[in-house]
Each structure stands twice: as C-alpha cells, then as structure tokens.
C-alpha cells in the first residue's frame, strides 16, 4: 500500500470534517424531532424520506473520509450521535477505525457491537493490529479469532499478546519483506514486482540467511540506484540499528529520533528476524506517552472519552483525588499542631498559604527539570552532586529575592518587622526543602526502577505544603515573643 | 545519504556512551590533578604523556559516535567537561552536532567558538539547517554566511528565516528530488542513478511541470514495482497531501500521524513546489512541543541546560514564580478579610487548605481534559454545552462524596456537626467553581486565539485557592452562630 491517502488535496482539517458531519446530524435530528412531534401519518412519510436522505448523505461523506478522520469525528461526538455514525460506517472499515480511535472511545464502540461483528472487524486486520485491539475484546472473540488464524499467524498473535505494553514487541509489526544475500539486485527487483505492492513505510528490505538470521538491510534507495547486476551482499548495509522485542519502547523511540529512522528490524537473541518497527508506530507511541505524562501530572488515571458517563469520569479521577485528600489531611494536621500560635496571631493564617504555594511552584520546577534530565539520560552519578549544589544555590538565591518581597509585604500589611523576618526565613527554608526533595524524589524513584514522572508533582506539593506550614508556623512559635 | 548509521549494531545506549566518556574524563582529570600537585619536572613529563594518551583515546571514541549521540553526551556534561569534549570533536562535525543539541546547550557551545569557527561550521550545513541555527548565531556570522551563499541558497535562507517558529515553513527542508510527468519510469530511474544518492527520508519523488507546479508524487515503491516503460504521468499519485509554508506545524504533525506520512510536498499559493516536510522534522517538533507543554505546566519559561549557571536558572524560573506570588498575595488577602472569623475559631485555619487543595486538583483535571480536547479538535459549539453539563455533574457528585468525607473528618476532629456541614458545602461549591472555570478558561482562551495550555494550571489554581478560601470562610462567617 502507498501511504498516500487518495482523497485529500490539501490535508484535511478535522474541524471541516466535523462541521460537515455535525450539520448533517443536526438536520437529521431536526427531522427526527419533527417526525416525533407531529403524529400525522402523511407528515411521517414525507419527513421520513427527508430523514433517510440525510443519513444517505452522511453515509457518502463518511465513505470518502480516511479512517483516521472518521476516528477523530467519532471521538468528537456525544455517545448517541457517535453510535449513529458508527452504524453508518461500512462494516469492512470497522477494524481499521477501531485501531485509530482513543482507548476510551474504542471501549464505547466495542460495547455496541456483537461478537460476530467484532470477529468480522478483527479478521480484516493484521496480527499485530489484532494484538493492539485485544485488550478491549471479549475473551470469546479472542478465542474464536485464534481458532480462525493459520498456525504462523496464531503463533505471532500469541507472542504479540505476551509482550509488555511499553516494549518494542508490543509496537512492532510483521510486515517485513525479506531477501537473500546471494541474489543480484535484478533478481530481488523481479521478486518485488511479483509482490505487486510493499507494506507501508517500507524504506528497506531485510536481508536474511537460510535460518532467518538478519545479515543486513537493503535500503530501497540502493536497490534503485545501484547496478542491477550487483549482488545483494555487496550492496546491502551490514551495520544496522536493530532492536529486541523486549527492549524498552522509550529507548527505541529515542533511537528513531536520533538516527532519523523510517523502519528497523527487530531480532531475537539469536539474531533471527522476528518483526519490524516503523516510524508511524513510534510517532503514535511518543504522542501517547506525552499524553499520559500530561494526564498523570494533572491527576487523571487514563485518557478520558470527553463524553463518557459522569460515573465513569468520577472513577477515572478518583485515585488522585483520594491521594490528594490524604496529603491535604496531613497538611491540615500540621497546621492543627499550631492552633495555639495562630490563636495568638491570626495574621499567620493569612500568610501561610504564600509560603506553601511558592514552595510548591518552585519544587515543581525543580522536579520537572530532573524528571526530564533522567528521561534523557543526562544524569550520571558523577554529576548528581553538581546538580544538587546548583539547585540548592538557585533555591537559596530565590529564597532571598522572593523571601524579602513577601517579608516586605507582611511588614507593610501588619506593621511588624519580626513578622517580615519570619516570612523571609520560612520562605528561604521552604525553597531549600523544595530543591532538596525536588532532586531526591525523582532520583530515588529512578533508582528503585519506578517511573519518576508519575505522581512526582503530587508528592512534591505534599512536601512543600506540610513542610511549608511546619517551617513557617514553627518559626513563628519560636519567635512569638517578638511577634505579639 | 542512507539513514542507516554505519556504526552501531544494536542501537546505542546513551548511558553506555556517557559512561565511556565520563570514565575517560575522570582519568584525564585525575592525571591533570596529579601534574598540578607534583611540581617535579620528571613527573610532569611522564604524567603529561599519560594525560595526552587519555585525550587521544577520548578523541577516537568521539569520532566513532553518531552526531546525535555526541550531542546527548555534551548535554549530560557540566560546562567545563563539555567544552573540553567539544574541543576534541572534529571541526567538520561541529555543524551537525550543533543542530542536535538542545537550545540551552547550543548557546553554551556557540559562546565558546569564534566567528571563523562558526562560519566554517555553518557552511557544512544545508540552508534549512542554517536557518535552524540562525537565532543563536551572532549577526556578523549570519551576514558573512549570506554573502558566501549563491543566489538560490541565499533566497531560500532568507525565506526560511522569515517563517514564524511554529509554521510548516520553519520545519521544511529543500531536499526535494523532482521529475517530469512526460518521461518514462526508465528515464526517471536513469536520472536518479546519475544522482548517486537520494536525500534522507525520500520515499517519494515530486512530479512538477515546467513552471515548478506540483502535478503529483511518485512513491519510490511504484518506481520499483511498475513497468519501466510506463509514463510517470500514468503511474504517479495525483491526489496528494500537501502543505503550505504558512500552515500551522501542529496541524501538519497531526496530518503526518493520521496519514502515516514519511514525506510530503510543501507548495505555495500557486501550487508551486517550495519545499518538503519529512517525518523526522515532524517527530522532533512533536517532542519539542510536548516538552514545552510540560515546562510551561511546571512554570519554566524554557528548556534549561541542567548545568547552566545559577543566575541563568533563576532568570528562567522567574516569570512564573512572580505570577504565582501575585496569586498567593491575592489568596492571602482573601483570608485576611476573614481574620475576625478565624480569630473566633482557629480550627478554620487548619481546615481551609483542604478545600483549596482538592479544588485545585479537581480543577486541574477538568482543565487538562478540555485543553486536550481543544487540541484534538473535539470541541464543537454543538457539544460544548453537553461538556459543561457533564463536568458540573462530575463536580457535584465528587463534591458530595469528598465533601462528606472531609465533613466527617472535621466533625470527628473538632466535635462540631455544623463545622462538618460547612466543610461539605464549601467543598461542593469549590468543586463546582473548579468545573465551571476549568471548562470556561481554556474555551475563552481558545476563542481569543491564545494557546489554552500556557498558564492554564496557574490560573485554575489561583481561582480555586482564592475562591475556596472565600467560600469556606464566608460560609463559616454566615453560620458562625452554630460553630462557636
């Protein structure tokens, strides 16, 4: 297949597509409502025809759209309209569209299909694509699918299902075109012509020996430009970037970025070719990863269908809110310890959120830097101490600058110089705490093999809240004699 | 050029590279220190030799590395070591390595080079690559460069420099291979063989007419598989995804993802070919965008060199801390309005951060959802109201659930049922506020053409903090009679 969609001159704009579908749906609903309201049989008939006409038009519009565009439209429609549009999509396109929609929307579409429809949809797909859908398919459909496949495909599906989510094995496909090293380019070309077409994103062929072991790759470029009489062995590239199925997908994505790859062979421990990784799978993975980072920073468990039910949304947001509740309770109890002090000087209650808030912001800045540096492999035992020193210096300097500002603010408001000094001291100490924890938390999580991005923001904010309240109210208690 | 790096069998691990360089550097420093400490001339000589030997070894190691790998190593080294390694890199590789390093690190490297070195480095690059470096180059180097280029390249560089940062024009390159429609594939192939090699990421040739207008594209696949006697016009794909230089880069990136493109032509208003966009430029752009989203969420102005000076870091973090300071002052004054109430019941001071904190978390969840949906084009005037209703329902339900928990907590701690009810009411109201503002803020920013991602988290937190304190302390003041 070519990767050239045969339908759009300039690239399609999702908003244009959506406008078109929505305006047809609106006409359809308008008519449906009319039919519903007016119970006269004559009207019913006429309106029913108009109604059908809109649906037919919608049908044509959808047929002309690229599957990825249909997917975007489905994601942007509320559940009722979504299922109406989904019914209008040709059954043989169901599989490819299911692959394109987000997890949450896929779930809603699959729920509306029976086992036969699902089986038919899955059978239009490649093994690696079926594996991508599998987590959302009912067990009986997967069983039926496994039985319907031939031995090689069944084995591939089973192994594809066995790879962990963030591994190269889960991203790779099986569309590799292989040739032998001992033939001429001319022979290889004749073989290709018999295939009629090459898989998407084929920029190189894989050269394997009799046992399926990878000997090199033959870029299509060389096949085109080199002498047809030459042997594959003499023209192929022997030093190749290869991956293992169990490799981390993030590392593979970085290798694709660094070396500007379009496709790369995946080999097993004995160097036998088992699959291929393509840049489009890598791009999807990068997008999905950056999405899930953003979601977890905001405290969402997973991608949410914006039109999912209220109850589903509550569940999705539950986990982080619960953690946040615990940290808020702790902060509350820290303040509770100092109720006496606050009773003596109520101004402290008004000032304390400043210390906690700016500490949280500064801690989040530090932790984001460190999480990124860890992800990019920039942190090394040798330079970790340098980083610590730097972050602590930044915090100390910021503490002096911002601390004197908040101190001045407190002094001007309440006319007590000692209160200003306590604010300044507390601010500096809380920024130092934020810096130390902002470096330590992700480094420790990394050391113990956890993803430092997940929950780091919640953790650092918890520390700077409770810590900030403790430092500020503690200092105020110590120096209460001068504050009264 | 092939995109197959000729050096690594399995993909290189940045940590291995870094380990190797660091251990050589460590040996080097060790020796340098010894030389420094022992002032005997004999030792000096011997150690000096050993010292040179380590540097020579480092030289070899660096020469064998892919430019992208050298870039990663430079980013992970503190300034002193970084410049030492940079000096060891062959001058003719300076240009390609400067392209690969992050903006902040590039700045530090460029600062260490004189005009002649910079000019020499830039002259090894393509026009579009020079344009990428240009913002960091001194004005006199750019002038010298413009003078050294031929007329076509100068015109290209000037137009490349004129495109805004997030446009297709800024991402595109000029490595297009063009053919005519009226020749046979055989003739086209002969022409290609004369070129000897094709630019990276060439998966299609561009078919243009006499005036340079795009008539179609010829995928390399078709060139390989179709009858060599056929005319280009009969084999080429005429419906092509094309871009304009002024198109938004984000839209282009989404089109690459949707249609799994490897390269695409960029045309002007009269459909004349002006450049080409490739998937590697798109991948870099996606990575950079998701990075800058994360940075702005955390309140960092830009990508930071983790080893930059303390003063530079303070400046980078300054802007958001200042905004945060203003919002914290406002929240503090809101509390200040209720000092009387807090004076009567100090427990309120301990409980108020719970209301503000959970409101902020919930608001950030909503705003993240909406920002993503806007970016994906999922929000449409027709469904905006549905979204509002849904988010408000989720907030109301969460308010009841979490509100009763915090209410119970307050009641158990302080033994006052009315305090529990005030907590529950304040929590529900603050979550509703968070939902309304979490939907409205990004929608309004989007409507007025601003990027809804930037600063949204700071804004929503400001609203839920000040709003939460106001609601909670206001309710407490109203019902003080029952709380005393």
TrEMBL record, chains A, B:
Lineage: Bacteria, Pseudomonadati, Pseudomonadota, Betaproteobacteria, Nitrosomonadales
NCBIfam families the UniProt entry points to: mgtE
Domain of life: Bacteria
One GO CC term, this protein: plasma membrane
Domain (CBS): residue spans on this chain: 172-235, 236-292
Annotated function: Acts as a magnesium transporter.
CDD domains the UniProt entry points to: CBS_pair_Mg_transporter
Record protein name field: Magnesium transporter MgtE
Compartments where located: Cell membrane; Membrane
Gene: mgtE
Species for this entry: Sulfuriferula plumbiphila
Membrane topology: Multi-pass membrane protein
Record keywords: CBS domain, Cell membrane, Magnesium, Membrane, Metal-binding, Transmembrane, Transmembrane helix, Transport
Family assignment from sequence similarity: Belongs to the SLC41A transporter family.
Assembly mode: Homodimer.
Transmembrane segments annotated in the record for this chain: 318-336, 342-360, 394-414, 420-445, 457-483
Family matches, as InterPro entries: CBS_dom (IPR000644), CBS_dom_sf (IPR046342), Mg_transptr_MgtE_intracell_dom (IPR006668), MgtE_N_sf (IPR038076), MgtE_transporter (IPR006669), SLC41_membr_dom (IPR006667), SLC41_membr_dom_sf (IPR036739)
GO molecular function, one term: magnesium ion transmembrane transporter activity
